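[Discussion] Sanity-checking designs against the backbone

I'm trying to build intuition for which residues belong where. Below is a structure token string of 160 positions. I'd appreciate it if someone posts a full sequence so I can compare it with mine line by line.
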């Protein structure tokens, strides 16, 4: 079940969120950010945040927000996180498909991911399967803890 995220949902998901940012393999978030800072970035600042709940466990989440203001506010941006114990079960696909429906319902015409780490091959492959295109490459944009500097992709999909 996918529904809007509550503050308690975020508290429940916080250990997974913290683990993901500590790994520093996919998100350009400071690894030592506090739970409150993370809540602000993930839940308070975006338009909406959602969770995937199964058997009373929060297994994944995403946020949706405008990517820019004014004449570019028709393009949204989303971020997704999935618990390691739920990976490989199609959850990221479900979250992304849900986010696209939400985007259209909120009046957005397109979705853009600003920095998909190129070494995150599973995500890059999934986004491509869902119709996103790499429209730009930012060379050496991400300091991966094991691979050193890797590129990041700007990925985009017209939704309207």
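Best answer:
Here's mine. Compare freely.
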């Amino acid at each position: 079940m996918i529904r809007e995220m509550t503050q308690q949902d975020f508290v429940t998901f916080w250990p997974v969120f913290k683990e993901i940012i500590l790994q520093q393999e996919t998100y350009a978030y400071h690894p030592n950010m506090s739970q409150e800072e993370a809540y602000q970035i993930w839940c308070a600042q975006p338009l909406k945040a959602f969770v995937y709940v199964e058997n009373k466990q929060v297994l994944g989440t995403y946020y949706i927000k405008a990517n820019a203001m004014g004449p570019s506010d028709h393009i949204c941006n989303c971020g997704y996180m999935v618990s390691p114990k739920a990976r490989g079960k199609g959850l990221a696909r479900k979250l992304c498909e849900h986010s696209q429906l939400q985007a259209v319902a909120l009046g957005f015409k397109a979705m853009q991911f600003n920095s998909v780490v190129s070494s995150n091959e599973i995500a890059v492959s999934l986004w491509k399967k869902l119709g996103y295109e790499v429209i730009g490459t930012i060379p050496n944009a991400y300091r991966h803890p094991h691979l050193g500097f890797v590129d990041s992709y700007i990925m985009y999909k017209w939704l309207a």
